[in-house]
């Protein structure tokens, strides 16, 4: 369970998100909100990219007091990923595997089904937007995260890749990983029911 306690996220002096007390059970969630409502900010705060005031606890453990664990428990996939052009996909994958404590069979599987085996040996600067998105998803599924946070995971993906991704999400959830995703594209999971979170008036609520 995620527990938010006096959670505030500000940019300069402007409050973007504010939740005094809020809880979120394990599950697969679709995060909705108008453009600029704070969807990406929320995901980046949970994953440790952005700092925040207050606290968030995962199963009773403070994220603010356990930054290293936070980075292992939460994986984040950007909507429009950018990487250093001079690195190869394999170099990035090896780095993330080191950070996330070892290799990952699922990352290898995604590399295969996304047909990225040869592309991993090329510099990221040669990648199309679709290839960068596939690499981002491969990296996001490394390790053993408790929560995976995906910002617009379906954009630039072909239909076959979308179906593979949704199947992987379902299987990972059945194995104990929860998800929060933003998406302007509708999606349906075959065996798992999704729930919806809406950001409205700087607060999150289940609808």
Automatic annotation (TrEMBL):
SUPFAM superfamilies: P-loop containing nucleoside triphosphate hydrolases. The keyword Transcription regulation does not apply. Keywords: ATP-binding, Nucleotide-binding, Transport. It comes from the Bacteria. One of its GO terms (molecular function) is ATP hydrolysis activity. Pfam families: ABC_tran (PF00005). Residues 2-207 form the ABC transporter domain. Coiled coil: none annotated. This is ATP-binding cassette domain-containing protein.
């Amino acid at each position: 369970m995620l527990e938010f306690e006096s959670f505030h996220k500000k940019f300069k002096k402007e409050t973007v998100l504010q939740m005094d007390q809020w809880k979120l059970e394990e599950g697969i969630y679709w995060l909705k909100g108008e453009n600029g409502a704070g969807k990406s900010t929320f995901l980046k705060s949970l994953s440790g990219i952005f700092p925040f005031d207050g606290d968030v606890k995962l199963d009773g453990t403070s994220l603010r007091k356990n930054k290293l664990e936070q980075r292992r428990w939460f994986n984040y996939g950007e909507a429009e990923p950018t990487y250093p052009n001079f690195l190869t996909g394999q170099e990035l994958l090896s780095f993330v595997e080191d950070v996330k404590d070892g290799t990952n069979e699922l990352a290898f599987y995604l590399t295969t089904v996304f047909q990225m085996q040869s592309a991993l040996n090329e510099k990221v600067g040669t990648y199309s937007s679709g290839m960068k998105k596939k690499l981002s998803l491969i990296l996001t599924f490394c390790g053993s995260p408790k929560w995976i946070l995906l910002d617009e995971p379906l954009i630039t993906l072909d239909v076959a890749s979308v179906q593979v991704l949704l199947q992987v999400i379902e299987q990972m959830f059945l194995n104990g990983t929860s998800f929060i995703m933003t998406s302007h594209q509708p999606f349906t999971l075959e065996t798992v029911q999704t729930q919806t979170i809406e950001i409205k008036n700087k607060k999150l609520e289940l609808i």
